[in-house]
Amino acid sequence: MAGFDKVVASYEEAMAGLKDNMTVLAGGFGLCGIPENLIAEIKRKGSKGLTLVSNNCGVDGFGLGILLEDKQIQKMVSSYVGENALFEKQLLDGELEVELTPQGTLAEKMRAGGAGIPAFYTATGVGTPVAEGKEIKQFNGREYLLEEAIVGDFAIVKGWKADRYGNVVYRHTAQNFNPLAATAGKITVVEVEEIVEVGELDPAHIHTPGIYVDRVVLGTFEKRIEKRTVTPTE
């Protein structure tokens, strides 16, 4: 079993090998299912010049937003960036390169990268600035643009449960981009709420097979709510 055991003892060990100017794929949507402790470890390491690929860039002071504080992110590839004032400032000041990508296209870029597909055609973005500089081809009378897949040097992922072989289960909507990112990292690191013994996870319920996972680390999580909406008391 030792040769298959992917559990590491610390976040420092989990992110060993991360260097300046690497590309990092991060799971999560808003603040749901984000690998918050792995992000904190990137901040602690101080790696610079990073390209981050994620649906969004967290919020001021939490999630990927903390990597903006020391200008660790050089380029952000994402579909939504509207919740972060520091992100806006760095973008407008020319300190941060941003590649806005339609959400479904971003998901497919990761999925294709994990499947070994270098590029794909999609109708999304045709006739918009998204299509600028990209090849356009007609299929059945409709125009499609060519989008390249994405593979990261690292993928950082938040799971619910994992076994020591790296098989992962996500909880409800925390699946979001996590299973896609997990397949597309040269090194995939998963932080989880619980590590179980091999055989405890129902094989039919595993979302990410361990073949995609290199390291698993056990963490505790703050799980912030991005926007709290409640019914006022009468």
UniProtKB/TrEMBL annotation:
Organism domain of life: Bacteria
Classification via InterPro entries: 3-oxoacid_CoA-transf_A (IPR012792), CoA_trans_fam_I (IPR004165), CoA_transf_BS (IPR004163), NagB/RpiA_transferase-like (IPR037171)
Pfam families per record: CoA_trans (PF01144)
UniProt key word Transferase: yes
One GO molecular-function entry: succinyl-CoA:3-oxo-acid CoA-transferase activity
EC identifiers of the protein: 2.8.3.5
Keywords carried by this UniProt record: Transferase
Family to which the UniProt record says this protein belongs: Belongs to the 3-oxoacid CoA-transferase subunit A family.
Protein name stated in the entry: 3-oxoacid CoA-transferase, A subunit
Origin species: Marinomonas posidonica (strain CECT 7376 / NCIMB 14433 / IVIA-Po-181)
